[in-house]
Each structure stands twice: as C-alpha cells, then as structure tokens.
Amino acid sequence: MPNRLRWDQDSDRHWNVWMGSERVCEVTCSGQFVVSSPDHTIEGGHSSLEGAVAQVQAWVRWSGV
C-alpha cells in the first residue's frame, strides 16, 4: 500500500504526499522534518526525511487506506 504514495517536492524544504488526487499530508523541514496532515491524523517530528517517510508509510499500512 505505501507504494501508492506520490511525494512531490515543491521547494528545498517542503513535500506534499498524495494518494491519487487526495493530499495525505505535507512534510516541512525547519530543523526537523515535520509531518502534518490536513485533518491532523498524521503528526510528527523527525530528524531525517527517511523517518518522516517511514511514519507516513506505516500510517497508510495501519489505516488500510
């Protein structure tokens, strides 16, 4: 399931994460890589982009979306 995600980097420090036409969350780097979804179901701070990616992928597996 996590491979259905599309990560679009629109600046040096910002990514939007999409599943189809729905934005799942965004990741912003400002010291930490901060994950935030529009409905606040996915939130977190990580020291690396890989950590943020792992959180989002785990959420997709857990939620079954």
Brief digest:
The chain has one helix spanning 49-63; strands at residues 5-11, 14-19, 22-29, 33-36, 43-46.
Work out the strand percent.
Answer: 35-45%
Unreliable stretches (pLDDT < 50, length at least 5) are none
- Give the averaged pLDDT, no decimals: 93
- N-C termini distance: 8 Å
Indicate the structural class.
Answer: alpha+beta
Structure explained in plain terms:
The chain has 65 residues and is an alpha+beta fold. Helices cover 23% and strands 45% of the residues. It has one helix at residues 49-63; strands at residues 5-11, 14-19, 22-29, 33-36, 43-46. A 5-stranded antiparallel β-sheet has the order 1-2-3-4-5, with helices on one face. The longest helix has 15 residues, at 49-63. The termini are close together. 15% of the residues are buried.
Question: What is the secondary structure topology, with strand pairs?
Answer:
Elements: E1 5-11, E2 14-19, E3 22-29, E4 33-36, E5 43-46, H1 49-63
Features of this protein?
1 helix; globular; alpha+beta; 65 residues; 23% helix; five-stranded antiparallel beta sheet
